[in-house]
Every structure is written in structure tokens, then in C-alpha cells.
Specification:
This protein is of the alpha/beta class and about 475 residues long. The chain is built from 14 helices and 22 strands. The structure holds flavin-adenine dinucleotide and 1,4-dihydronicotinamide adenine dinucleotide (NAI). The site of flavin-adenine dinucleotide has 38 residues, from helix 1, strand 2, helix 2, helix 3 and strand 4.
Length: about 475
């Protein structure tokens, strides 16, 4: 007899596995289906984020940063490193271990919360009066019956037309995380989040990295002041970034040659040992039998949902990268929790105005809320306050004084509208701004709060004070 569940979740990425855990915590009978496997064919829940995204990229960013520090900045601290060498195989194996720990952690959490896990592909197989039949194919083949279905199937890398991924010479995000030898010359198409993070990893390990970006503006979605500072710093680090290019033919031989037109309209070509293509991602809607079930897609090919993540089908929900909104793990998680709570008859809410963004380069870039350019376009009157890490004692002690914190507050009410950081530990500092914005704080509220000394967080307080021209340490 088919197993019956209150909720069947398809996909165990951050959206799906968190939704499954939360639904189980609320007393519902939950199953979660995921098809990701290790090289040995074992289940590897966690989705893109755990297997070929957030987690392995951050492991390599950390390892490569340690290597760069040992080679370049330790000497400044009076630490001499002789005979420094790179064991790339070990570095990659460590990254794989970190991934595996996370896969195992999720399997443990499923067990602990009594979520039944099925390793295989899930698809819609039919509908009864008030329930859905979900077919699992693969290792655990069977048909489940579900009162509610949450689709959390994530996204896949977008290929460049005429240059299919082979993950030998033309690499997607998975290939970019497993290059077995440091390429002498590395090309990157797309100066977005993946391009900058993975470009940084391989530059630190010794590659000569060239990034080709189609848009004329560098990091167009980021506050202009931050984007300009980032461009200057990355250039100084040795990342060659060309914006406003039109990528043409890609020729694969022993190496890869990319023909392109530069921003001045001049024909150029770039020959590299490996090419990372990071030009965005596409929602995973194939193989779900979504058309047969009548699941509606939006104009971007994502599953169409309302503000509460409801699809057009009764009791079918969708969360994460497969629906509208930023493709971020924490956004997927928040939607997963909100949907589980709604199914259980509770309240669920995701505030898109306070979803933080982080680019884990060095310096890190983090922001929440509106940029100056957005507010100008909306005609909102605002004041800004900026404080450089150069004037922060902890940053000086760390030996990492690049960048600044910038607060943007409403001119009349002083309410914080956006916070933009480029600098050390921006990924951690932004949390204070998220809390402030979530609670509707004014810049003055942050300015009045006691921040520990010496800490990088004092730059947050000082930038908030700067909105009212009252910085103390500048
Ligand atoms: P996914 O994580 O993609 O998970 C979907 C899962 O469903 C996968 O396991 C997939 O195999 C499975 N699946 C698909 N179809 C089926 C089916 N029919 N049956 C069964 N299983 C199925 N975000 C951040 O917030 N911070 C970061 O630092 C960050 N770094 C990233 C680095 C890289 C290189 C990449 C590529 C992405 C990064 N992201 C980061 C984005 C983040 O990974 C995604 O936003 C997040 O994984 C989306 O979660 P999800 O649950 O929607 O989908
Ligand atoms: P992206 O959207 O961040 O950047 C893609 C870039 O490629 C853009 O700048 C775009 O203008 C450019 N581009 C598009 N077509 C092009 C072409 N034909 N030639 C040259 N340039 C072209 O996408 P990316 O880097 O692939 O990452 C996908 C998503 O994954 C991100 O948007 C983000 O949501 C998520 N991610 C998040 C991370 C984080 O939170 N730290 C890290 C990595 C990925």
C-alpha cells in the first residue's frame, strides 16, 4: 500500500530540507525526496548549496585565503614562512570532507525529526480528491500519497550558447570547484557572484584570471560607491575585469579561445587553459511532470507562485531557486519555514526587503535594503553616512583596513533604508543592519547602541553616527 504523508517535499536543498524539518517539528507526517548522489551513489542531501555551491565554495575561499595570507601578509606580522607550497589535492579533499559532513548532518536531522527520506527523483503521478500521488524513481522507487506537496527543486547553471559545459575545459560551478591543477590562465564569463568568488579562489592559488562581463557597469545591483571600490581593489589584486564586452565564438581545442568585442567595439580574443561560465542559473522544472499536473510557470520559466508560495494547484507549494526572488540559500530556507507553518495552520512570512546579500570575496561585500541609485530612481530623499575601516582600531590590528560601511537613512524620519559594507567580515557585520531594518530602526538607534571596543562593529556605529555628521573617530 502507498505510504501516506501530510507533506511530501521534492528536493532537499536549503529550501526543501528546512521545510521538511519545520513541518515535522509542527507534528506533520513528512517525506522528503532528493536525487543528489555522492560519487559512490550514496544520498547527498543539501542540494546545490551543500554539494556544489555555498559550502564548498566557502571552504575553498577560506583555504585559498589562508594560502594567500601565508604567502603575502604573514610577513607583515613578523611571521616568516619558508618553503610555502600548495597541496591542491589535499585542499580539495578537505572541501569534500566539509561537504560530506553537511550531507551527513542533514540525514541525521531527518532521522531526528522523523522525516522519511527517499533517494531518487520525485514527479507528479496523479491526483485523488484531496491528495497528490508522487512517484519516486531511482534508488527508493515507489509512489507516495501527499496532502500537500512542496516543490523545492532548485536551479542549474545556464550555459553560454555554443559552448556547452564539459567540466573539463568549459566549467560550470561544479567544475570550478574541482579543477585538479591550478590553471595557468583562467577565463571567467560573467562578473557576478560566482565569477568573482571562484575567480578569487583560483587567482589566490596562482592563476592569471580574466573576467569578461556583458554589462557596462561592474556589479550593477550593488551600491555604486561599493561597486567602484570593489572594482579598484579586485584590479589591484590582479583580477583583470573587462565590462561591456560581447562574447562571440568559443573554440575548444587543447585550450579554450573566446572571441569577443570589447567595450570600445574592438574585436579581441582570449585563450585560456580553463573557462568558467557563470552567467546566471535556470530553475529546475524538468522531470517533475509539471505540465501533466497542470503546474503553471511564470515568464522566466520558474514555478509561478503568489506571495505565500502557493502555486496554481491546490495544496502544491514551491520555494527557493525554482520560484521568483533572489537565488539565495537563506531566502529558500525562510520560504521553506513559512510554507511549513502555513500548512500547519500557523503564520508564515518572508520579508524580501531585509534579505541580506553577501559576496564572499576579500574584501567581502554585503548589503541589505536599497542602494543609493535605487532610492534616487524612486525619488526618496535620504542621507548617507560612511565610515572607513582605515579608521577602525580592530581593522588596523587585523591588518585589513580596506573598505567602508555606508548607512542610508530616510532624510525626514532617519529610518534605515539600506546598509552597504565592503570590508573585513562584512558577512557577519550585515546581521546588525538586518535586525535594525527588521525592527524599523533609525540610524540614530544604531548610533546610540554601545558596541564592543575594539571591534569591527564599531564601524557600523560610526557610519550610523556619520548620517548625522557626528563620527567620533574620524
Ligand atoms: P537546491 O539547493 O538547488 O536544491 C534542490 C535539490 O532538489 C537538489 O538536490 C536537486 O538535485 C533536487 N531535485 C531537483 N529536481 C528533483 C526531483 N524531480 N526529484 C528529486 N530531487 C530533485 N547562496 C547563498 O545564500 N550563499 C552563498 O554563499 C551561496 N553560494 C553559492 C555558490 C555557488 C557556486 C552556487 C552555484 C550557488 C550559491 N548560492 C549561495 C545559491 C544557493 O546555492 C541556492 O540559492 C540554494 O541552493 C537554493 O536552494 P533550493 O533548496 O531552492 O535548491
Ligand atoms: P549572477 O547573476 O550573479 O551573475 C551573472 C553575470 O553574468 C552578470 O553580471 C551578467 O551580466 C553576466 N552575463 C550574463 N550573460 C553574459 C554573457 N553572455 N557574457 C558575459 N557576461 C554575461 O550569476 P552567477 O554568478 O552565475 O550566480 C548565480 C546565482 O547564484 C547568483 O545570482 C546568486 O543568486 C547565487 N550565488 C550566491 C552566492 C552568494 O550568496 N555569495 C555565491 C554564488 C552564487
Amino acid at each position: 500500500m502507498a505510504k501516506v504523508f501530510d507533506v511530501v517535499v521534492i528536493g532537499a536543498g536549503p529550501g526543501g530540507y528546512i521545510a521538511a524539518i519545520r513541518a515535522a517539528q509542527l507534528g506533520l507526517q513528512v517525506a522528503c525526496i532528493d536525487d543528489w548522489s555522492t560519487a559512490a551513489g550514496k544520498p547527498a542531501p543539501g542540494g546545490t548549496c551543500t554539494n556544489v555551491g555555498c559550502i564548498p565554495s566557502k571552504a575553498l575561499l577560506q583555504s585559498s585565503e589562508n594560502y594567500e595570507h601565508a604567502g603575502h601578509s604573514f610577513a607583515d606580522h613578523g611571521i616568516q614562512v619558508k618553503g610555502l607550497s600548495l597541496d591542491l589535492a589535499k585542499m580539495l579533499a578537505r572541501k569534500d570532507r566539509v561537504v560530506r559532513q553537511n550531507n551527513e548532518g542533514i540525514l541525521y536531522l531527518f532521522k531526528k525529526n522523523k522525516v522519511m527520506f527517499f533517494h531518487g527523483r520525485g514527479s507528479f503521478a496523479g491526483k485523488n480528491a484531496d491528495s497528490w500521488q508522487i512517484k519516486v524513481s531511482g534508488q527508493s522507487a515507489e509512489t507516495l500519497v501527499a496532502k500537500h506537496v512542496i516543490v523545492a527543486t532548485g536551479s542549474s547553471p545556464r550555459p553560454l550558447p555554443g559552448a556547452a559545459f564539459d567540466n573539463k575545459l568549459i566549467l560550470d560551478n561544479a567544475g570550478a570547484l574541482t579543477i585538479p591543477e591550478v590553471p595557468k590562465k583562467l577565463g571567467v564569463i560573467g562578473a557576478g557572484v560566482i565569477g568573482l568568488e571562484m575567480g578569487s579562489v583560483w587567482r589566490r592559488l596562482g592563476s592569471e584570471v580574466t573576467v569578461l562581463e556583458a554589462l557596462p557597469a561592474f556589479l550593477g545591483a550593488v551600491d555604486e560607491q561599493v561597486a567602484q571600490e570593489a572594482f579598484k581593489v579586485f584590479k589591484k589584486q590582479g583580477l583583470a575585469i573587462h565590462t561591456g564586452v560581447k562574447v562571440g565564438k568559443v573554440t575548444v581545442k587543447k585550450d579554450v579561445t573566446v572571441d569577443y568585442t570589447d567595450s570600445a567595439g574592438k574585436a579581441q580574443s582570449l585563450t585560456v587553459d580553463k573557462l568558467i561560465v557563470s552567467i546566471g542559473r535556470m530553475p529546475n522544472t524538468g522531470g517533475l511532470s509539471a505540465e501533466t499536473a497542470g503546474l503553471k510557470l511564470d515568464e522566466g520559466g520558474r514555478i509561478a507562485v503568489d506571495d505565500d508560495c502557493r502555486t496554481n494547484l491546490p495544496n502544491v507549494w514551491a520555494v527557493g531557486d525554482v520560484v521568483r526572488g533572489p537565488m539565495l540559500a537563506h531566502k529558500a530556507e525562510e520560504e521553506g519555514v513559512a510554507v511549513a507553518q502555513r500548512i500547519a495552520g500557523q503564520h508564515g512570512h518572508v520579508d524580501f526587503n531585509t534579505v541580506p546579500w553577501v559576496i564572499y570575496t576579500s574584501p567581502e561585500i554585503a548589503w541589505v535594503g536599497k542602494t543609493e541609485q535605487q532610492l534616487k530612481a524612486e525619488g526618496v530623499a535620504f542621507r548617507t553616512g560612511t565610515f572607513p575601516f582605515m579608521a577602525n582600531g580592530r581593522a588596523r590590528a587585523l591588518g585589513d583596513t580596506t573598505g567602508f560601511v555606508k548607512f542610508i537613512a530616510d532624510e525626514k524620519t532617519d529610518r534605515v533604508l539600506g546598509v552597504h559594507i565592503i570590508g573585513p567580515m562584512a558577512s557577519e557585520l550585515i546581521a546588525e543592519a538586518v535586525v535594525a531594518m527588521e525592527f524599523g530602526a533609525a540610524a540614530e538607534d544604531i548610533a546610540l547602541i554601545c558596541h564592543a571596543h575594539p571591534s569591527l562593529s564599531e564601524a557600523m556605529k560610526e557610519a550610523a553616527l556619520a548620517v548625522d555628521n557626528r563620527t567620533l573617530n574620524l
